Amino acid sequence: MSVRAKFRCVQKEGNNLRLEVVISGSEENKDFWKYTPAGQIQMSVDNEKAQEQFEVGKEYYVDFTPANE
Length: 69
Known about the structure:
Blueprint: E1 3-13, E2 16-21, H1 27-35, E3 40-44, H2 48-51, E4 59-64
Antiparallel strand pairs: 1-2, 1-4, 2-3
């Protein structure tokens, strides 16, 4: 089983990114916020091509799927 959440990129400094749970802006965002009321993802991305995919203010789906051992 996987779980999907929706986050917005709120900070991009060098290779450091910070994303926060969406809370408004659309009916879909209100639904995500209802089930994921708080959350933050911080990560460091060294790959320049991957860094380019993130824009401050843009929303992203995040899927959590168990890793097979």
